[in-house]
Each structure stands twice: as C-alpha cells, then as structure tokens.
Amino acid sequence: MKNIKCECGHVNPEGTVLCEACGKPIEGNQHIDGNDKKKLLNMRYDGSARRSQTYNKSIVDKIWNFFSSVKIGVWLIVTALIASAIGTIYPQEMYIPADAVSRDPSIFYEDRYGITGQIYYQLGFHNLYGSWWYMLLIALIGISLVICSIDRFVPLYKALKIQKARRHASFLSRQRLYSETEHVTSEEKNKIVSSLKKQRYKVTDENGHILAEKGRFSRWGPYVNHIGLIIVLIAALLRFTPFMYLDDYVWVREGEQTVIPGTKGEYYIKNKDFILETYDENDERFQKAIKKEGMVPKNFQTNVIVYKESGETIPGEEPELEEVAEDEIRMNHPLKFDGYTLYQAGYQLNEFTSMTFKVHETDDPEETSLGNFKIDLTSPKPEYKLDSGFRVVVDQYYPDYYLDDGEPKSETDYPRNPAYVFTVHPPDGSEPEMSFVGIGKNVDATGENDYKLGIQDFKMRDVSGITVRRDYTLPLFIVGALIFMFGVTQGMYWQHRRIWIHPTGEGILMAAHTNKNWFGVKKDIERMIADTDIKMVDDQQELDD
Pairing with 165, which of 15, 22, 300, 329 sits 20 to 30 Å away (CA)? Predict the structure, then answer.
C-alpha cells in the first residue's frame, strides 16, 4: 500500500483523510468520511487511516472489514436479544418442573403447551443458552467488539499522539467553531494563553501556533466500554463450562443420603428432617388467602448434613465420609461450602416409602391374613413369595395414579398415589387371579376371585428439593460491569476539547472542536478572550442552518 506525503512533509499511511501532522484534507480520500460533500470536517476519528477503510483485497481483509462494521455489530446484538427473549417464552430444559408428566423435553413441551410447545422444542429453543449456535452468536459479538475497537482505537491513538500545534488553514476554517481576527497584540496573545492554562488546558506552542487541549481521556470511554462488554461475554461463555458454572437439582428424602450432583461423587447430602410451617388458618389476616389458595406455607426448611469423601474408595465399597457442614436450609438462607451453594427450592409432602399388603379370602368377613408382603417403593420388586405359599406378581405399577379417559396412568414418577395391578398365584396351583389395588381402590378384574389383597400398613415421608449451584463467573460479570460503567462515566462526564490558534501576520485564526458539549467549549473561549478585542468564534453549523 502506498504512503501519502503531505505538503507539510509528513508521510501518512494510505487511507488517511486528514494529515496526521497539519490536518490538511488529503485529496482523493475525502469520500471515506464524507468530507467531500460537507463544509465541516468529520472529526470522529481525526481523519486517521483505519484498516477497514484501506485494505480490501485478501480474505482476511474482507473478514476484518465485515466485523469492523458497527451495523454488523448492532445486528448481532439485536439477533442475540431476540433469541434470548424467545428462550424465555417457555422454561428451558433444565427447568422442566419435577411434577411434569415427563421430564423428557420431546414429551413435556407438546403435552404442556400443545403445538407451539412442539415447534419450540423442534426448533431447539428448549436448550437455547447451551446450544452451539447461541454460543457462536455470543462469540461473534465478542469478535465484532474486539475488531471494531482495534480498527478505531489504534489509528486514533496514533493520530492524537502525534498531532502538532501547527495546523493548515483549511483544517481550521472547516471546524465547527471558527473565527478570524485581523489584529491581535502580543499582550492579548499572552493573556489568552494564560487564561487557557488557568482553565487547565494543556498548551503547546510551536512558533506561535498554539494547541490547547484537555479531556483527551474521554475519547477512550467507548473502548473501555468494549473491554467491559468483552469481559461480560467471556463470563457468559464460561458459564457453559461445568467447572466455572453449575446449576443442578436434587431430591433428598427424609433420612436418606445421596450424592450431590455436579460434584463428581465427592460430596454427599443427608436430609435429617424436613420442616413445614403454615399460616394459622384461624388468624383473620390470612383466612381469605387460605380459603382461596389452601394451605399457605410460612416457612419450609431442610436440616441437612454435608459430607465429603475422604481417602481412596475401592469400587463397590462404601466411601469414607467426613462431615463438612451441618445447617438449616430455608428460603433466603442457603448453605455454602467449598464454592458450592445449596438452596431450598421445593418440597413434596407425604410421599409413600413402603406399603404392606395382606392376602385373605374374598368371602372372609374377618379378612384373616393368609400371608403378607411389603413393597419398598424406592426399589419395588417384580414378584413376592409369601411364607404361606402364595406368589404375588406386580404386573403394573402406577406411582402417581390417575385416570385418563378411563385408562390408568401415572402423572409423575414419584409414589404420591401408588396403585398396582397384582396377579395372585395360589399355593394349590389353581388359576392365578388379577386385582387392581390402590388407595381406596380394590377392584376384582373378573368378579370371581377367591382371594383378595388389602392394604395392611404404609409409611410416608417428606421430600426436599435442593438446588445445587456453583458460580465462578460472577466475579467476571462484576468486573466487566464495573469497567463498562467506568467507561460510560468516562465518556459522558468528560469532553475532549481542543482550541487552535494560527498566527496570520498581525492577526490570528482561531478554531475549536469538542466531541460533545459545544456550549461548554464556547464558554471556555468566552472566558479566554474576555477583555480582549479578539473575535468570538462563530458556530458554522448554526450559520449553515
């Protein structure tokens, strides 16, 4: 690529719109920033040569130019926002309710939401935030931010670093604030320089040519914003890695001990006791709510012990555990240990743990037991042999029984309302008999059974739903947000102001530019030229209007 030598002697890279040294517009390049059709110069990037405006030959150049476009970046962000909004219409796969008919997303969405749920699932929105294309979209936004920043920051930094006080007359005359004074005394020149210094301008004097500058710091605000956003995007991508982010759920029954999911079997949780407290139904303050909603919980908590596996464990052998923490987990009072946090998220009351049945003769009014058997509902057996010689086969088991158009089904996989289809094989080898048995239900399939099954005893317990969470990305989000807000403050509350003074014989040309708050820079100039005969600058944009 060819370099461009200005009449001032400075060699500019190709694509430069305004000479980096004197600011003279480079002929043939004014179309890049639209200066060829405007009286006032576009000073957004100080006419510096940006790679995206200069190189356009290789595939690397085309990719760079594509991602350096602000429009492309905006469209990527809008697309991500729309996709994220669609992802909130229905719950994500990981948040399918535990009491759903099935936690299989192919069944749940269609069953719960109909045709729209089926379309939602088939389009892949059920697992949106973990999908490859959503992560790719977030990565593309990050790439766009990086390339946009580099494409503008580096040349702008170089242009501002090497700017000189001596500027070409055409550069000054095409600034928004401009004036020409025919006669200025040396005392007046000294007075305005002194005034600029008092207003905390950095003054550079180059053989009578003066550049007064302050607030350059504000020009880097947008790029600080980009750094903050990039850190936030990196944190968002890291949430898809199991080490950096974990959000899981576990049901723990009273008296049971189970592995905490996501800990690779290192930690265990034991439910010592579940406590549910409700509002007093006799209290007038709560009667309307209780009448409308039923039982209203005031507090529900789980008293737990967390264990950690210690030492090496041989496969098949019970692990050695040491206690890590013991506490009450309740709403807004989680349990924290070793980077993990356990939250009380739900509960199930009165879940059956076991049921004991007896066999008796159908026509026996005393229902004298001919044998009994106990079903452990956590791991029911398919067949039970009684000491009296009877054999009972469990043909069908419905943990949470309900009727769907006359057909028995199970609403969930949890034993809340268990029902069974039993086949009883008598000890004398006669024909087996079939019965349907449940809570308050005992149906003889043929009406001619000699033997009947009845519930003799049962045990129940409560179940706690615990959310397991670990988030190492939160500090990154906080750092990124703080940097972003610092950049917003930096760009919003400071302004980059520059005032040029160009001597012409006995007079001067004066011009000024700022990236925002033109009223403020005008007030600075008014204070600078107070008690002098120097002409106040005209706002050429207002004059054109």
Answer: 15
